[in-house]
Amino acid sequence: xxxxxETPALTSPYEALPPRMRGMSVxxxxxxxxxxxxxxxxxxxxxxxxxxxxxxxxxxAAEAAMRAGQTRYTYSQxxxxxxxxxxxxxQRHWGVEVAPDRFAITAGGMNAIMQAMQATLSxxxxxxxxxxxxxxxxxxxNVCGAVPVTVPLRRGADGGFSxxxxxxxxxxxxxxxxxxxxxxxxxxxxxxxKGEMIALRDLVRARDLWLLSDxxxxxxxxxxxxxxxxxxxxEPDEKLLVTNTFSKNWxxxxxxxxxxxxxxxxxxTFASLCQYNTTSIPTFIQYACIAALDQGDDFIRTMVxxxxxxxxxxxxxxxxxxxxxxQPPEGSFYxxxxxxxxxxxxxxxxxxxxxxxxxxxxxxxFGDDPDGKLRLCFAISPGLAEQAMERxxxxxxxx
Length: 399
Known about the structure:
15 strands, single chain, alpha/beta, 13 helices, seven-stranded mixed sheet, PyrdxlP-dep_Trfase_major, four-stranded antiparallel sheet, L-aspartate:2-oxoglutarate aminotransferase activity, 2 domains, globular, pyridoxal phosphate binding, Aspartate Aminotransferase, domain 1, pyridoxal phosphate, PyrdxlP-dep_Trfase
């Protein structure tokens, strides 16, 4: 008998990946965008990004910090000055006192969500997410080895979206660990009313669950006030994690800077998570973020005003086309609409890209989509919105 052990069959690198990695889905928003990112003729409304450049005072703050030598490692949780600026910002806009040590600076809102889930989820846990939802949210749950559970945002006869608390309660199982809310919503523009936020807070309290609140679009509302924050409704030591980013308010998508608000007593945990995720984001970018917070309220108002007018252009234009169903979004800078007779929104988005030279996101990017929904981003100038609407109107009217 041979003393030589039998050599096991080698697997391919792909086969050696954990199942959650092999099953990672393609982001269809990026897939459509990659078809024409470099085409100058395409009006690009697929990704959540405005067309304004980062304001000069933010760029100048980063440049001054670099010239002053702020190019070295710093606190993993973020500069103390930046965390104080965030505390001042929340006090100014929502009237809440949040201790500076409850903020952790992240590499954008995406990394904030990742860290929130890394800190709280174990393999097999379930996370309840209202849908349609931003695809990255459910994908992050999967990456952490947990299971996303979608409950529907119900759609009324007028095309508007609403969330029933009973649907969330019915989805809770012994494995449920978290409820994740994005309000104002990407992709639907739904804004959770304050009374419903209180009811959800009470439900997660009663069931001892984590609540993740993605509040990226709070300033982008089209009524008389900005959207409420769960920080107004919860105690400092509750199981609440609030994620946000500098990307949308201050046109800083490429800077990759965001933040997370953590419960009282977890600062050390999230300082370590920041350390092991990114060490810290670049120090000079953090100085740019301080400038955005301290000097950027007028810029936010400019952004929201432009979005309001472009929202009007698209809602009126699309609403006048037979077979298109929509409800003007209450918040965010997205419009989700349905096209009668269409069941394959990905194929429809590709046709619109090729024939009308307008880039839209397919409804299938955000979950099951039986009724042919498309999402467009209207964080653009009203003039460009008019051009895009002319192209879309011509496309849909010729059939």
